[in-house]
Amino acid sequence: MSFDSLGLSEKVLTAVAAAGYREPTPIQSGAIPHVLERRDVLGIAQTGTGKTASFVLPMLTLLERGRARARMPRTLILEPTRELAAQVEENFSRYGVNHKLTVALLIGGVSFDEQDRKLGRGADVLIATPGRLLDHQERGKLLMQGVEILVIDEADRMLDMGFIPDIERICKLIPFTRQTLFFSATMPPEIQRLADKFLQNPIKVEVARPASTAETVTQKLIGSGGEQHEKRAVLRQLVRSAVNLKNAIIFCNRKRDVATVFHSLERHGFSVGALHGDMDQHARTATLDSFRKGNLTLLVASDVAARGLDIPDVSHVFNFDVPHHAEDYVHRIGRTGRAGRSGEAVTIVSSSDQKSLAAIEKLIGNAIPWSEPLPETGEEEGEPRRRSGGDRRRKGERPEGRSDRAEGQGNRRRDRGESRRHAEPVEAIVDAEEAPPPPRAPRAPRPERERPKAEPVSQAAPERNRRRRDPEDRDPPVIGLGDHVPAFLLRPVRLRKTKIDDLAETLDEEAEAS
Ligand code: AMP
């Protein structure tokens, strides 16, 4: 099938040809003709399938007639994250080069004023995250009565992020006569309920089994002890021993682990950036751009921040944690092996992950094989290695493990034009934290689905190794003055005998006598 047969306008077809697309992807050929017929569409498709163009291209065609009025956008696209919203805006710029449409992006983390001005001029297309959209609406700067087309993208992620009440509020503000396009990678019952509520007699277009993983991705598991520092050591080994590693996304379950893993890798000399929901927009965009351009080799990210990001050609995905939601596994590894390229996804597994791993294997319908033992990387205690796939240390930089590390980090960030905000501050960095853990033998593949057991931290490890900045493995709380007892307090003190002592002695003697 060709794009010509879908009913798109000449202007759009010219832009599509300029983008180099030869034929529509299945979600595009399935959805575009129905969108152009003004039907509601329920699209079940993951990112990477060409889903964005499946609504952007017909919207551009439909928007050629009519024009926007001040504060009354004609179309609204809701996205769960700022990055996705920005990505959709890029799609409008790319495919809308031959149109003179006004596109406004309403996302958090940037000033209201510029957004206000754009709304004031009249927007043909409004792309927004739910919270910021409602903020504008509550300020009385946005009227939703003119919205003809509503797109709810990544609905399952909206659900995960708790946006559904906001979406329901927004839907009530938009005329009932609107056309609604609803996209989700998975269709759990809550999402089905929403689809039933928001859509009228929709055309359902499903392009892949929700749980399917691309065949171009090689998946593996690697065992680790459950301690954070053990997992970080395994991660470093994985990165260093990865074959043909061009770039990699490292996923963590929690924001604070994103920060810790990022700092750890940075201090071990890797070229690394971090992406999570708490970063300001400027920092997120800068990090993402650096990664896209190849200036950063590794990107540590949380699920929310990385969901749906279109980063073509990621060679590796490392799951620092087994995701709690099985669907997240599918999304994570979908970052690699895109557009028919091959990719590798390796998941670090400790004994506490068995339940989550079983859920993933059930969802994807097969067992993920265990990796071959990793080659020794020869990492020496106390000093991060220098030469590696992701190594970026420059000449003249001082080695790790020094006491003025914070200053050195600042220098490195300035060196590469990153702001301090770029990597958000974390718990105070303790020198000894990153001294590599006692060496562990690489694990052999487990032929019979044996799960790794959590290993205790070696008692032989030097004292400094036990000092962690991780909340999980923090030192026991210091009681009183801790080790720092002034000498005068340690002098022996002669105590005067009191009446109570006399009484105690008498009682003791009586007890002995009886
Ligand atoms: P999406 O699923 O919207 O994130 O798109 C994933 C990638 O596919 C993007 O980089 C698009 O530029 C690309 N793409 C979209 N449509 C096509 C097409 N018909 N042919 C080739 N690439 C496409």
Automatic annotation (TrEMBL):
SMART domains in the cross-refs: DEXDc (SM00487), HELICc (SM00490)
PROSITE patterns, per the entry: DEAD_ATP_HELICASE, HELICASE_ATP_BIND_1, HELICASE_CTER, Q_MOTIF
Domain named Helicase C-terminal: residues: 237-382
InterPro entries named among the record's database cross-references: DEAD/DEAH_box_helicase_dom, DEAD/DEAH_RhlB, DEAD_box_RNA_helicase, Helicase_ATP-bd, Helicase_C-like, P-loop_NTPase, RNA-helicase_DEAD-box_CS, RNA_helicase_DEAD_Q_motif
Gene3D superfamilies according to UniProt: P-loop containing nucleotide triphosphate hydrolases
Region (Disordered), start-end ranges: 369-485
Biased segments, Pro residues type: 435-444
Compositionally biased tracts (Basic and acidic residues): 397-425, 445-454
Annotated keywords: ATP-binding, Cytoplasm, Helicase, Hydrolase, Nucleotide-binding
GO biological process: response to temperature stimulus; ribosome assembly
Record GO terms (molecular function): ATP binding; hydrolase activity; nucleic acid binding; RNA helicase activity
Catalytic activity: ATP + H2O = ADP + phosphate + H(+)
An annotated GO cellular component: cytosol
Pfam families referenced in this protein's UniProt entry, alphabetically: DEAD, Helicase_C
UniProt short sequence motif Q motif, positions renumbered to this chain: 1-29
Domain Helicase ATP-binding as annotated: residue spans: 32-205
Domain DEAD-box RNA helicase Q, first and last residues per copy: 1-29
PANTHER family noted in UniProt: ATP-DEPENDENT RNA HELICASE RHLE, ATP-DEPENDENT RNA HELICASE RHLE-RELATED
Family of the protein in this entry: Belongs to the DEAD box helicase family.
Record protein name field: DEAD-box ATP-dependent RNA helicase RhpA
Upper classification of the organism: Bacteria, Pseudomonadati, Pseudomonadota, Alphaproteobacteria, Hyphomicrobiales
